[in-house]
DNA sequence: ATCAGCACGCGTCGACCGCGAGTGCCAACC
DNA sequence: GGTTGGCACTCGCGGTCGACGCGTGCTGAT
C-alpha cells in the first residue's frame, strides 16, 4: 500500500531528524511523542522492524533505539524535496562578509570560513581552475641572472608563480623581449590554447632566445596547464572535534586525510555542473579513510564555466537539508563574485 | 651541596625523559632501573620529595609516580646544553625535499610538512615579512574597466595581489603609464621606503592620473606595507590527536585557536633574531587557549634580515631536545633557500 | 647522607547487581 | 490486513564492593 510506504518513510525521516539533533538512538515512543504521526508506538515499532530488514536503520545493541544506516541517510537525502533556503539575514550576512574581500585569496578564505561557520563542519574550496581561464597577463621577472619567475594572471583573479631555472645567464633585455612575445601571443586567450600557441612561439623565436623560451614554455604548459597542482583552502577543522564520537577512533585518520590535497580533491571529483549538489554518504566515499564521513559538494562558477568545487566534510550524522542549503548558497555567491568582477 | 643538587637535577631529567616517552607518571623504582644513578630508589624518593616541594614535579594522585610541572620542564629546557643535531640522513632528507620546491608557496608548504613530520607536532611558518624586502617588480593589470589588480613581487619570491577599485573607467594606456611610474620609482628599493616614494609619485603625476595613482598608493602603503596581513602556513594538525589525553578536553580549543591567524601570530611574536630558539611552556603562553601547549619557535632569514618566524606547537609533554633540533635545522634551510636564491 | 624494609593510601580492575529503556511478540480489535 | 495495548524479555548502564598492587613516606640502621 502506498500510504503505508509513506508512513514508513515518515518514520525514517523522524529517526534521522531526531538522531541528528540528539545524537542518540531514537525509540519508537520518542517518535510518536515528538512527531505526530497519528499512530501508536507499536505501529511504529512494526515499521521500524521492516525498515531494519530493508537495511535503512540499525540498532547498536539489542535493546536500544534505532539509528539510520548509510542507506537510510541516502534514501532520506534522495527524497529531500524542499530544501529550505537560508534566511534573509543569513544571505545578507554572507553577501556583506564576502564583499569585503580584498583579492582572490581573500574571497576564498572568507568563503571557507563562512561555510564552516554556517554548517559547523569542515569546509573546503578548490581554487578556480586554470583550464577555462583567460590569460590576463604574463609577467617575467629576473630574480637572479640565471633565474626568472613566471607570474601568470588570469581573468578570475588568480595569480600563479613558478620559478624557472634558465641554465644560463640572461640579459634584462632578453627577458623583456620574451615577456612581450608571451603576452602578445597569449593575452586574452584561453589557457587551453596555450600549448599550441607556445610551440609556435618557440619556432618563431630568434636563435638566442630559443633555449630560454623552450624552458619557459615547458614550465608554463606542463606545470600550469596540464598538471596544475590544484590548490585548495580548508577551514573549520576544529569542528571535527565537536563530536569526537562521530568518528570512532578515526578522528586522527580523517584529519590526516584532509591534509592530503590529493585525497580531498578526490572527494570533490564528482562536482560537475554548477548548481548540482552531490552528496557522498559514508561508505559511498571512494576514499578509504573517509568512510565515516559524508561529503556535500557542488561546483561553482558561472552558468557555462565550471570554475571549481567547494563543499563540506562532516559526520554522516549531519543536518543534510541545512548543509545542502548552506553549500548551495555559498557556491552561488562565490560564483557570482568571481564571475561578476 | 653541589653534587646533591646535581643528582636531583638528574632525577628531574630522568622523570622528564621517561614521562615524555611513556607518558605515564614515573616511579622512583623505574628511575633507578632505567637510568643508572648509582643510588637506591629510596634516595630518589627523597630527591623527588624535595623536587615536589620546590614545584618542579607533581603527582596526579597520592600514590602515583611523578610528572613534571611546567616549572620542571622550564628548568629542564634551560639546562639543556648539548642539543644533539639531526643525523646526516635527516639533514640530507630535508635538503633534498626542500630543494624540489617550485616557488615560495611550495618552499613553505614543504617546510611545514617536513617540520611537522620531524617533530610529529603541529608546524607553523610565517610568510617572509614584506618590510625588509626589495621590490622586484610591480604589475598593474586591468581586470575590468574600472578595476585593476596590483601585483607586488619581492626579492624573496613573495607575490602579493590586491584588487583596487578605481571608481572610474581607466584606459589601458593610463594603466601602462601608471605601471611604468610605479616601477621606476620603486623597483630595487626597500618597501619601507615605499610610502615616501609613492607620495612623491602622486605629486609628480599628471592631473588625469592623480586620482587613480592616489588610490593605488593608498592600497600599496596601507595594506601591503603598514598592515600586511601576515600570512602563515599550518601543517600537521592531525598530530594533535596523537595523544588526545595531552589536551584535557581542550583539543577543540587548541584547534580553534590555531585557525585564528592573530592568535598564532601572537605565539610567535617572540621570534627575534634568527638562530635563537624561544620556548614557551604551558602557562608561560600569553594566549589563554594555549596554556596546555608548548611552543618552540625561532626566526629565520639571513644573518642580518629577519624574514619571519617558524616553529611548532605541541603538548607540554614533548621531546624538547629533538624538537629544538628539528626547528633549528628547518629554520636554517628555509633561511638559506630564501636568501640564497 | 644513604638505604632496606615496612605500613599505608589510593587508584585500578573485575565482578556483581538492580534498574529501566526499548524491543518483539501476541492476542484483541476495528 | 492494519493497528493497538499489554507484557515478557534482553541487555546496556551506573553504582557498589572488594581484592590487588603500586608507589610512596617514614623509620631505623649503617
Ordered list of secondary-structure elements with their pairings:
The structure is a homodimer of 341-residue chains.
Chain A: H1 2-22, H2 28-34, H3 41-53, E1 57-58, E2 67-68, H4 70-78, H5 88-99, H6 104-119, E3 122-126, E4 135-144, E5 147-154, E6 159-165, H7 172-186, H8 194-204, H9 207-226, E7 232-235, H10 251-259, H11 261-267, E8 278-281, E9 293-301, E10 306-315, H12 320-340
Antiparallel strand pairs in A: 1-2, 3-7, 3-10, 4-5, 5-6, 8-9, 9-10
Chain A binds a DNA duplex (30 and 30 nucleotides) through residues 1, 4, 25, 27-29, 39-43, 45-46, 48-49, 59-65.
Structure in words:
- Two copies of one chain form a homodimer.
- Chain A is α+β, with helices and mostly antiparallel strands and 341 residues long.
- The first copy, chain A, is built from twelve helices and ten strands.
- In chain A, strand 4 and strand 5 (147-154) form a beta hairpin.
- In chain A, helix 7 (172-186) crosses helix 8 (194-204).
- The interface between A and B is large, with 37 and 36 residues.
Biggest chain pair interface: A-B, 37 and 36 residues
Which descriptor suits the 3D outline of chain A?
elongated
Structural class by secondary-structure content of chain A: alpha+beta
Following the backbone from N to C, one meets helices and strands of chain A in this order, namely HHHEEHHHEEEEHHHEHHEEEH
Work out the number of β strands of chain A.
Answer: 10
Number of helices of chain A: 12
User: What fraction of residues of chain A sit in β-strands?
Assistant: 15-25%
- Separation of termini of chain A? 54 Å
Based on CA atoms alone, the radius of gyration of chain A comes out at 26 Å
Unreliable sequence segments of chain A: none
Helix percentage of chain A: 40-55%
Main sheet characteristics of chain A: 5 strands, antiparallel
Main β-sheet, spatial strand arrangement of chain A: 7-3-10-9-8
What does the oligomeric state look like here? homodimer
Round the mean pLDDT of chain A to the nearest integer and report it. 88
Amino acid at each position: 500500500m502506498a500510504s503505508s510506504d509513506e508512513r514508513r518513510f515518515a518514520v525514517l525521516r523522524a529517526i534521522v531528524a531526531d538522531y541528528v539533533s540528539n545524537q542518540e538512538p531514537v525509540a519508537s515512543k520518542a517518535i510518536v511523542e515528538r512527531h505526530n504521526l497519528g499512530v501508536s508506538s507499536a505501529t511504529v515499532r512494526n515499521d521500524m522492524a521492516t525498515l531494519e530488514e530493508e537495511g535503512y536503520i540499525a540498532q547498536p545493541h539489542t535493546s536500544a533505539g534505532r539509528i539510520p544506516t548509510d542507506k537510510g541517510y541516502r534514501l532520506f537525502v534522495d527524497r529531500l524535496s524542499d530544501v529550505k533556503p537560508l534566511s534573509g539575514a543569513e544571505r545578507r550576512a554572507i553577501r556583506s562578509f564576502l564583499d569585503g574581500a580584498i583579492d582572490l585569496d581573500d574571497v576564498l578564505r572568507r568563503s571557507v570560513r563562512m561555510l564552516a561557520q554556517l554548517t559547523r563542519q569542515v569546509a573546503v574550496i578548490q581554487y578556480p581552475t586554470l583550464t577555462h581561464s583567460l590569460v590576463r597577463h604574463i609577467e617575467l621577472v629576473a630574480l637572479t641572472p640565471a633565474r626568472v619567475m613566471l607570474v601568470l594572471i588570469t581573468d578570475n583573479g588568480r595569480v600563479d608563480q613558478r620559478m624557472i631555472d634558465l641554465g644560463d645567464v640572461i640579459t634584462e633585455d632578453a627577458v623583456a623581449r620574451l615577456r612581450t612575445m608571451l603576452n602578445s601571443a597569449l593575452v586574452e586567450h584561453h589557457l587551453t590554447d596555450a600549448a599550441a600557441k607556445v610551440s609556435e612561439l618557440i619556432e618563431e623565436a630568434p636563435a638566442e632566445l630559443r633555449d630560454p623560451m623552450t624552458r619557459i614554455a615547458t614550465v608554463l604548459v606542463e606545470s600550469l596547464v596540464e598538471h596544475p597542482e590544484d590548490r585548495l583552502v580548508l577551514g573549520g577543522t576544529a569542528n571535527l572535534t565537536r563530536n569526537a564520537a562521530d568518528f570512532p577512533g578515526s578522528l586522527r585518520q580523517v584529519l590526516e586525510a584532509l591534509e592530503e590535497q590529493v585525497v580531498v580533491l578526490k572527494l570533490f571529483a564528482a562536482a560537475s555542473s554548477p548548481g548540482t549538489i552531490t552528496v557522498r554518504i559514508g561508505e559511498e566515499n571512494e576514499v578509504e579513510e573517509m568512510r565515516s564521513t559524508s561529503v556535500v559538494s557542488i561546483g561553482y562558477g558561472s552558468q557555462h564555466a565550471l570554475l571549481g568545487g567547494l563543499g563540506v566534510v562532516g559526520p554522516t550524522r549531519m543536518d543534510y537539508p541545512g548543509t545542502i542549503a548552506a553549500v548551495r548558497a555559498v557556491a552561488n555567491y562565490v560564483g557570482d563574485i568571481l564571475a561578476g568582477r
